[in-house]
Structure formats: C-alpha cells, structure tokens
Amino acid sequence: MRDGLRRLIVSGSLPLGEKLPSVRELSTQLTINPNTIQRAYRELETEGYICSVAGRGSYVCAQIPDDPARQVALLQQFDAAVQELLYLGMRSEELRRRIPEGGTNHD
To answer: Is 60 left (phi over 0), alpha (psi -120 to 50) or beta?
Structure first.
C-alpha cells in the first residue's frame, strides 16, 4: 500500500499539493482495511511524502523530502539491478537512455 502510493507520488501521477482520498474513501474503493491505509499514510507522512492538515485531510507534500538514508537504500537497489541487467546482456548505453534528463518529474 505504502510503496504503491509512494510510486504514484514520485511518478507525478499524484502531483505535489494533491489532496489524497480520506482513509474511509480509499478503504471503500480498494476494499482494504482502513488500519492498513492509516498506517501507510502515517509512514508516508513520517517519510515526508505526504502532509496532514487537521480537519482537512492528507496531501502530497508541496516540498520534495530530503531523505539521505532513503537515497542510499535506493542507490544500493539501483546498483544491484544495474549489475544484474549488465550480466543479462543489457548494454550500458541502453541503461543510460532510461534515465530522464533533469532529474525529477516535478519541475
């Protein structure tokens, strides 16, 4: 749940400042236990991806989180994936083409 929401945020499918559905709404739409959704929202808020406003709901944070530990973990996953892709015969030029210029989708 949390990883799916994080992917939607970082891909730009949920833009910065976007209001998220309430826990109850999302629970009904996805037929997922509300506690699971509440936990995902709480963890994403702790990580800096979403912000809660009392009485108004949860939003995708307008500011991109600065999380060096997450960056290190993702780079380790990236390095492992690149190593395996190269082993499987993918060329480094092909891998380079997959990295977008300019960094983020949130320009």
So the answer is: beta
